[in-house]
Every structure is written in C-alpha cells, then in structure tokens.
Amino acid sequence: MDGQLQFIQLEMMVATLGLLILLADLFLPSTARRSLGWVAAGALGLVFLLSFRGGYVALADAEAFGGIYRLDALAFFFKRFFLLAAIFVLVFAVDFAARLRGGVSEYLAFILFALTGMMFASSANDFSLLFVSIELITVTFYILVSFQRHRLHSLEAGVKYLILGAVSSAFLVYGIALVFGEAGSLKFEVIRGAHGELLESNVFLFGMLFVFAGLAFKISAFPFQVWAPDVYQGAPTPTTTFLAVGSKAAGFVLLIRLFASVVPELTAQWTGLLMTVAVLTILYGNLCAVPQHNLKRLLAYSGIANAGYLLMGIVAQSGDGTAAILYYLAGYLFTLVSAFMIINLVTREGEGEDIACLAGLNKRSPFLAFALALCAVSLAGIPPLAGFFGKFLLVKSVAAKAFGDAGYFALLAVAVFGVVVSIYYYFGIIRAIYWSKHTSVDSPVSVAWPTRIALGLCVAAILYLGLLPDKPINWANAAAKVEEKMSVDKK
Amino acid sequence: MNWLLIIVLLPLLAAAAVGFVPGSQRLAIRGITIGASGLALLCALIAFCSFEVGTGFQFETKVVWVKSLGLHFHLAADGINIGIILMGAIVAFAAACCADDITHRVKEFHILLNLMIGGILGAFASMDLFFFYFFHELALVPTFIMIGVWGRGANRNYAMYKITLYLSLGALLALIGLIGVYVQTGAESFSIPDLIDKVREKPIDEAAQQWIFPLLMFGFGILVSLWPFHTWAPLGYGAAPTATAMLHAGVLKKFGLYGIIRVAIPMAPVGAQSWLGVLAWLALANLLYCGLVAVRQKDLNLLIGNSSVAHMGFIFLGIASLNVIGLTGAVLVMIAHGLLAALAFGLSGHLYRQTGSLDMSRMGGLLRQMPLAGSALLMALFAGCGLPGFANFAGEITIFFAAWSAGLKTVTVIAAWSALVIGGLYMMRAIRNILHGPLRGDWAKAGDVSPLIATAHGLLLVALLVFGFAPGLLTKGIEGEATKIVRLAKPAER
After folding, report:
1. Where do the structural domains in chain A lie, given as residue ranges?
2. Verdict on whether the full-model pTM lies above 0.80
3. Which of A358, A470, A477 to mutate to test the interface with B (most CBs of B within 10 A)?
C-alpha cells in the first residue's frame, strides 16, 4: 500500500494542510487568523514546487488503487494548474476576509478541500473516482458560495447552486449507472476497450449523454448555464474566482479524459451535437453579456462564452485541440484571477460591482487600471496577450478540419461573431476605466503586498503566455499527447 | 545592417521610454516620440536607397519564435514592401509632428501613438503570416482608446465602436483565411516564402481555395473599406485625433491591400480567378458610390474620408486586373495615397484646431489667411483629382491601362469617367469653398501652421512629387515582385 500512497502524496499534503488550518484556528487569536491564508498560500507554493520533484514525476504513466487513479502528463498539468489557482485564491481570500465576518479559517480550509477534489479529478481513471471528486468539489462549493450568511445575495446564490448542482449530480450518477449497467465496469480502461460494441447500445449512449450533461453543468455550457450568472454575482468574490477557474477546468479535464481518449469514436459520432452545444454556448454567453452592468455578472456571461470557445477544442478531436484547451485555460486562469482581484479592490462592500465603479480608476491607481485593461484586452483575444494565443490555437485546431466540412465552418463563423461581440463589452471596461465621466471616489486604492505580488505575477504571466509561447506550448503539447497516444493505441 | 529591425523596434522602445517619463514633461515626451520616428525615417530612407532591386530579400532578420508551430519572427524587405515601409516611416514622422494638438494626457497619447507606429511598420516588414497579423492587431487597441479619449465630435463613441468592431471582424475573417492557408499547404511554417515554395510544389486543393480566397478578400477588404463594408472609415477618421487619422488612413488601411497582393493571390490563384471579377465590380462601387457620397459632404473631414474610400477603388481595380502592370499600379497608388491621405488629414487637423469646426460652408479665403497650409491643401486636393506630377496620377493611369488590357473594359470606362468627373467635382468645389473667396467669420483669427508641422506637411508633399516625377524609383522594385506573383497566379501564361 505504501507504494500506492505515494501516487496521491500531493493530495494528501493539501488535505492535511486543510485540517491543520482548522486545528490552528483553535489556538490562534481571531486577529491572526487572516494571515493563515498567506501561510496556506506559501505552503501550497511548496507543494507546487514538490510537484516538479524527480521522484514524483517519475511516477508518470502509471496507475494506482486498482487502476482508478492515473498519473500522467495531463494529470500533472492540471494538478499544477489547480495548485496555482488555489494559491492566488488564498491570497485573494485574505483580502476578502473582512467581508466574510467570521469563519475565515473554515473558508480557507474549504478552499483547500475543493482543491483536493480538483486534484483527484485530474487523475480520475474510473467513473467512481470521477463522481467522488466532482462531488467533493461541488459540495464544498455549496458552502463556499453561501459563506456570507449576512448577505441575501450570497444565500440566494448558495441555494441556486445547491439545487441545480444536485440536479446535475443526479444526471451524472444516473448516467454512470446506465454506463455501468451496459459496460459491466466503471473503469475507463474497460470501456475504452469495449466501446466499439457499446456504441451499438442505446442505454450506453443515454448514459454517456447524461454524463456529458453533468459535466456540461460544471463548465456552464448551454443549456446547463442558467446558474452561472446568479451564482457568480452572489458568491463571495474569491469563491467566484475559484468557481470560474478551478471548477471549470475540473470539468474540462474530465471531458478531455472521457471524450478525447476513452470514447473517441463516440465523440466523432456526436460531432454535430458537441458543435451545436459549442455554438449555442458561444452565442448565449456573448449576447447576454452585452447589456450587463455588474462586472461579476458580465464575467459570468463571458465565462459561459469562454466555455463555448473551449468546447471548440473538444470538437476539433485532435491533440492540437486538447493542447489548445490547456493553453487557453492557463491564460484564462491568470486573466480571471487578476480581473476579479481588481474588481474586489475597486468596489466597496455593499456598493455592488457596477461597471461605473471603474470610473477614474486610471487616476486612483494607474497600475490597477493598466492590469484590468490588460485583462479585458486579453479576454477579447487581441495580441500580444495570452487570450489571443489561446484563441489562435483553438481556431487553428478547428480550421484544420474546416476545409471540406461546412459544419466546422459554421462553428468558426459563430466564434468570429462571438469574438466581435465580446470586443464590444470588453472594450466597454476599458472605456469605463479611462474615460467615463461620473467619478464618485478618487481616493487612491490601497493594495496589500501579497496581493500586489500576485497581481504582478498574473500580469507577467499574461504577457509571457502571449509574447513567448514557445515553451508553454510545448508543455501543453506534452500534456495533450498522452491522451492522443492512448486513443491511437487502442485503434 | 538590419535596418528593418531598427525601424520596427525604435517606436516600440520609444513607447517604453515615454512610459518612464513623468506626464508633466511634455517636451521630453514629444522629443522622444519625434526623435524616434525621425530616426526610423532616416533608417527607412537609408534602407530604401541602399536597396538593390532584384536580389530577393534584404535586411533580413529571422528568429524562430515558436518551433512546434513553425512561427518565425521574420522581417525582410523586397521590392513591394520597401516602398511601403518608407511611406509608412514618412507618415509616422509626420503624424508624430502633427500630434502637437494633443493638450491633455499627453503621455498616454504618445505611448499609444508609438505602439501604433511600431505595429504598423512591423506589419509591413513581417514575412511571417503570424507576425503580419500580430503587428496589425497591435494598433487596434490604441485606435480605440485614442478616438475615445482624444477624439472629436459628439458622435465619437459610436464611431469608436464602429471602427473597432469592423476592423476586428475583418481581421478575424482574414485570420481564418491565413490559418486556412497554413493548414492546407501543410508547410508547418507561417513564413510567406516557405508557404510560397510549398504552393509552387503542390497548389492548395481547389475546393479549399474557393473558401480561402473570399475569406481573405472580404476579411482584408473590410480593413480597406471595401464597398459595402466602408461605412466605418469616414466616420472613424472624422472622429479620430489628427495623428491617428493620418496613420490609419495613410498606412494601416493599406495592410489589407498588401495582404491580398502578398498572400491571397499567390496562395489561392484558382479562388482568385473566380472572385476577382466580383472584386472589380465592388471596386467600381467604391469609386462611384463613395465618390458621389463625397460630393454631398459639407464637413471637410468627411469629404476627405469618403474620397479616401473612393480611392481604394483604384487599388482594388488594379488588383482585380491581375497582371504585372495592374499590381504595380496598385502598389504605387497605395504608397501615393498613403502620403496624400496623411497630408489631407494633417491639414484638416490644423484647420480643426483653429476654430473647432470643419464645416466647409463656413470657410473661405483661407489661402490668403494661411499661405503655407493653404497651398499645401491646394496641392493635396489637386493630387486627389489625379493631377499629373503627383504620384497618384502615375499609379492611377497605370491601373487604367492594366484594367483595360485585362478585359475589364466596361469597368475601366466607368471608373475613368467617375475618377475624373466626380473626383474633380468635389475636389474643385472644396478648393473654391475653403481657399478662395472672401474670408468668413471665425476664420479671421486663424493662424498658419507652425514650422514643425509645416516641415511634416512639406515632407509628405516632397515625397508625393518625387514619386510623381520619378515613379521608376518605386516601380522597378515592385515590377519584379509583381511578375513573380502573377506567374504564380497564372502558371499557364508563363
């Protein structure tokens, strides 16, 4: 068993860290509890570094616990991704602590537990682990979303997320049951081997459709996106960030595992369906974002649109498509983290996050103004930033299929339309920052040092991913190759 | 020497340098910007003079940027783009001089201006499709912010969104076309020479060409204000600050034309054969429709904007004829029109600064009031009608010959008629309204241009005249490259 435990060493460290924080809460005075967030972020930084340790990396391409848990380049990529996201969210949570009104340590601990779930999800090689890790994520998010019990919006968001999340879990578990009933196993390996025959069975297809629906809820794809705007807006902003980045990426790692390597033939058969979902998600997200004034709500709709762009990578059904998803997600992580952090800094409690709050930001803090403008430009997909290169890779992966298949062309046309619409509302943010008239406050914004460092790192990463993509694209390719190779081996 | 690298880097470095100067140091900011663009102009001039015709790529810089995708940072000059880069550098310097009218948030404006100049010059110097696109897009955000913050008129918010959305749409359509070229050739490289080698071996599948060419033609076409996607141009230029309008109308707009000549025709010749006929008729619509719209304008900026859209029709017509003289003429008009548009917008910017209005019905007698600016405007408007002696004439007449010999006879006759009559009509009317007659109300206090701006305008005029009397300076280089492109596009006539 010892040999097997080393596979989950990172997850164990993170979970232990969560428990230690809960313990430390008992011994620390209430004023010092906030700084636990910085301690936890530092510790996660250490875990992040440990994930590059030779002994751990050497475990790649092996399975543990009877094959339900798998370590490979894709898993490494996503574990590091989630760790980074959690570090930023923890730093962010310290800033936010005053607005939580108590329970700071629990809040921090729940972030770590959700992180554990995400890290397990990235290694899931079996429907049972898939379900358990998704539930670990979702259940902790029920709490994280409604953590500001004194705010009606937060509670409303919590209830909405609880009800719709439960429905999606029901979809997922029902789908898994149907798949199990037909395949006789929950292991991805078995299904991969047998899925040629399984495709004949309608029960299996129904099961997979339900599983897809459950995961589509996680990534907020149409028609399972209705929860996103309300929950994003109502939840405490660090939760929103983690939901937008972590939970969405967890959905995508599972989609990649399932649809790119376990059942590639099914994906090919469902190209039309996936394409339709992508098209509708892009249209819905972008068109609904146009009239929004609340920044968190705007980013929620833009998050839906981005889920649509990311689905293009699945539709492309190639290693390039998968690599493009990874690259895009990495850029999305840094962009959204810094955008939400800045929105939180600029708006004050109780005022809401109206876009008018950004007026005069240019004078209040030129750095924050520049960073937020950079995020908007990157989300709009304009060079030389991360968002552009991600979109470029996604479009390229779809265009590789488009000549000779009009459906892919329609998808590209919708994506172009979506991007043009999105430029309208993203540039609205820039306009609000630099030349909107009604300035209510002109006090300088004070930014704590850890937050400042986090923001600086995000800005540097956005520029790095946009300007020097050579190395990161190799990482994304290496992670994506795993799945491609596995699906080719089986053929 | 890698002159091109210096030319592209100078403005970008200047943007960074201005970032470190405190906003109150207006003189230093202006000095850095004008100095950098002046140096870039000097380098462009040296490069242009030392360019040897017919020896392939020169002043080359090639660095692998993303190995797995075959992206290179590849700058190089050949007969076509060396002239355009020189024109771009002249306009950039002139625009930097004319940015004198910016009085608030000077620092931010100059950072954006330098970024835009770097993007524009980089786009024309790039021989890699990715960077070609990348540099072009670098100018998009500055354009948006410049119109929003420093723009003119009550309508500027509308104009700013319109120009940004149209340009994004065009750029994205072109991007899909460019990626299509990459995917279909299987070259594993975005480098234009590599792609051309690949196409020479094995042309792109004909069915795919029928998709790629219209994507590129309309994508690039929108960037050049091809009818009926032209409405952003007059509006956007009317609302933009002087320097932005000069750079945009003068240089950036030529990007789409350059793309059609450089990429669309050589990569998708079969697609071109079936779509260039359509382009010829759309070009005619540009000439006639936008010319007639220009006749109706009362605002000088809208007149210049519409006439500049109309002039794009000549270039499209030259491209549509798809023969050596047609392409040569097209590039010649691109360069001539770039200088002319910059001059016209520079002058209208000066006039606007005097009274805050460009209503032509309330102008008059300005030639006496401001002899320098007035005579420059006179010459600019004459050059706009295609008066011999200016570079525009040389290009336009070449295009008429080309279109006639390519068999587009009806189009040529109508185009020649409209160019002479309609163009003459609105230009002459503008001259009479603005420059002659009695001096009207507000304009009595108006002053002439400052020496700095006069130098800028003079430089543009000199370039127009030099290339007008000696178009051979440009055409020698262009012809060689145009021949190669035509050979690729029509292998049968080799």
Report:
1. 270-491
2. yes
3. A470
